[in-house]
Write a structure and sequence with these properties.
seven-stranded mixed sheet, Bifunctional nuclease domain, alpha+beta
Length: 165
């Protein structure tokens, strides 16, 4: 059974210095946290902060391709948690047909935010995930104000998002 959730915050784990996505159910009863990489966090933060970059990031490109091909993101699903790894799917609709694409949760959430699509989490994933104190998570429409994450993002330039070989 799936439960709809929303992004409650993007915070930094003070122990590991890793970014963490915090999802909270619509009734504010359950929360899950997903540790992600710095580049993935910056892609989400750019959307949350509505930062206008001179060139599209990968998730913006995917959104643009979907729009050009008249593909709708129906929902994002965090479907499984195995060996401390979350698994997600992006559910798409086009011409009356549906498609499901395997994705990393951070990518799926970044695309859901850009396309204003709902995020669902399997109830088994909620049961298996590490529990966070709901009182410690503030409801926000953007990053939670974590000074470390904001400082890092402010120091980054568009060139930092390019992969260099």
């Amino acid at each position: 059974m799936l439960k709809e959730m929303k992004l409650a915050g993007l915070i930094m784990d003070s122990t590991t210095n890793a970014p963490v996505i915090v999802l909270k159910d619509l009734e504010d009863k359950e929360v899950i946290s997903i540790w992600i990489g710095l580049l993935e966090a910056s892609a989400i933060a750019v959307e949350l902060e509505k930062i206008d970059l001179p060139r599209p990031m990968t998730h913006d490109l995917v959104k643009n391709v979907f729009n050009s091909l008249n593909i709708k993101v129906l929902k994002v699903e965090i479907a499984d948690l195995r060996d401390n790894t979350f698994y997600a799917y992006i559910h798409l609709g086009m011409d009356g047909k549906t498609f499901t694409i395997d994705a990393r949760p951070s990518d799926a959430i970044a695309i859901a935010l850009r396309t204003k699509s709902p995020i669902y989490v399997d109830e088994d994933v909620i049961k298996k995930s590490k529990k966070m104190d709901l009182e410690s998570i503030k409801e926000v429409g953007k990053t939670d104000g974590s000074k470390e994450l904001k400082d890092l993002l402010e120091r980054m330039s568009p060139d930092d998002f390019e992969y260099k070989m």
